[in-house]
Amino acid sequence: MASDDISRGEAERLRGLDEAARVARTFEVIAGKGALWVWGDEDEILFTEDAKRRTLLPIWPHATVARLENEGEVDGEHAIKIPAEVFLREWLPQLKEDDADIAIFPVEERSAAILTLPDFRSRMTAALRLN
Question: Which residue from 45, 111, 110 is spatially nearest to 77, judged by alpha carbons?
């Protein structure tokens, strides 16, 4: 299980940002640290659906914010670190097969943004290039 990577106070502050700021922060942190966080256990990763019944993979910029959003819902689940390059190379093709989009930094079931896979790849590639 991942330890806190930022303080709980900082995580709460980030959770309080508006949607645009949470999206910007997510790409900034992923590019800077070279990784993103998903939620799940040893066997499965958490997916959700939106009101349009789209399958979504929620991602977070920090383990701590993922934990605050999900902790205690299901025993054994925890934040899982995925290197950004691995996510782009291995996860995006699988998500395409699963017909899933990406929910950026959801807070209380409200995503900062829902991005299609091509949009995510474009933004992530640009962020990594800038870093």
Answer: 45
